[in-house]
Amino acid sequence: MFGCGLGRRHWGSGTLHNSAVSPNRFELVADVSSADPEAIEPVLRRLVGGGIAPTADGFHVVATLSGESARDLNRSLLSALRHVERRTRLRAAWTAGGVTERFFDYVLKGTQSAHP
Description:
The chain is an alpha+beta fold. It contains two helices and eight strands; from the N terminus they run βββαββαβββ.
């Protein structure tokens, strides 16, 4: 388990969430690329469960995760993957409450209304 002062993070349950707050449910669509996809695959499967499909340089992920915010979930996921292989990149779209937040690695690139 990892912590950041906001409560305990639970990694083994297939979801990322912070026990100190009421978690929101986020739909994740992401492309994960890495210098060593085989090394990150077990960690990715344990953290997100959901649909993981191999790509030329990593994985395409579609999953539902619970957490305080898209930024927190994105940071937690990328940090865990980079703990295994630091040359890992995450391009992710997190959707909850009709809003999609897009990230490249740790950086928020934009927010838009989700289309039904």
